[in-house]
Sequence to fold (316 residues):
Amino acid sequence: MNTHPPRLAWTLLQWLAMPEDALIGDLDEEFRRGRTSTWYWRQALSLIVLSPARQVRSDPLRSARGLALAWAAFLAVFAVFEVFIAPRLAGSTIGGYSGDGWSAFWIGACICSYVGFAVSAWIISFHRNHPGPVLMLHVASVVLAMAIAVAIVEIRAPAPTRVPHVLFPLVSVALPYQLRSGFILAPLTMVIVGLLVSRRRQPQTT
Amino acid sequence: MARQHLTDFELMILLAVLRIGEDAYGVPIAREIEQTGKRSVLLGAIYTALDRLEENGLVTSTYGDPTPERGGRAKRFFKVTGKGLKAVKDTQRAFTALWSGIPQLKGGTT
Fold:
């Protein structure tokens, strides 16, 4: 009989949800008594999904600080893109951006948004003390912002009309949506970057 | 200030802890609810509710010794306080009062 829980679920649980030892012990005990891997994954995922709420409840100040830092990093990456890169790419115009097609500008901006997500995840994950739940909180905030941004952009500038310049920060969040997979890929990018940073900082896993 | 009324899940947890007695930690609490309540539960949800109940003074918790079969992790044992017992009784009273006098519920359990 398999006595070790699914390694990936166990690792994600330890890092992203950071539940207390007694709870991990309960999960391990149940798994050793014959619960299935599916059962373990279900328990682990529910804890990971609930971790942002637990994080806010247990330490609101640190949560707010982490979110502010992550969003500042994300927007800073976009500010760099807007000032130094966007003017060189075709498709950008003064006072607004064309919203149709996949011009070099849009591709550059989309790549930039993922760089922004990765940098913000990297900054959070560099925190010494249990960064996982704060990262999950940031992921939740990005998904929420993405949904709001997509709605606003769709209303204000439905394709093929031009996106007003004032909406650029919103567009930057909504850009991954253009691929119709951003709601999956953006969180995945942040979690993978966070895991990589975390593993580099703490090589031991068991 | 602590809430006066328990949610159904909180009530189930408190009743499970009372039924189990001394050995009430996460695993048996979950099993008790699954077996008697006929519903599957998430251990994380049980801990979240127990943390809330502890904050409100309805349960207390203590840690046991780490054991090898749990990967060297200790069990967290829960006990219902006097305040918790009173909350259970109050809830039972409220439910009983609501139950009485409903014609559709007379003469059977279904």
Observations:
- Helices of chain A lie at 7-17, 21-32, 37-58, 60-85, 104-125, 132-156, 168-174, 182-201.
- Chain A touches chain B at residues 17, 19-30, 32, 42-43, 46-47, 50, 54 (CB under 8 Å).
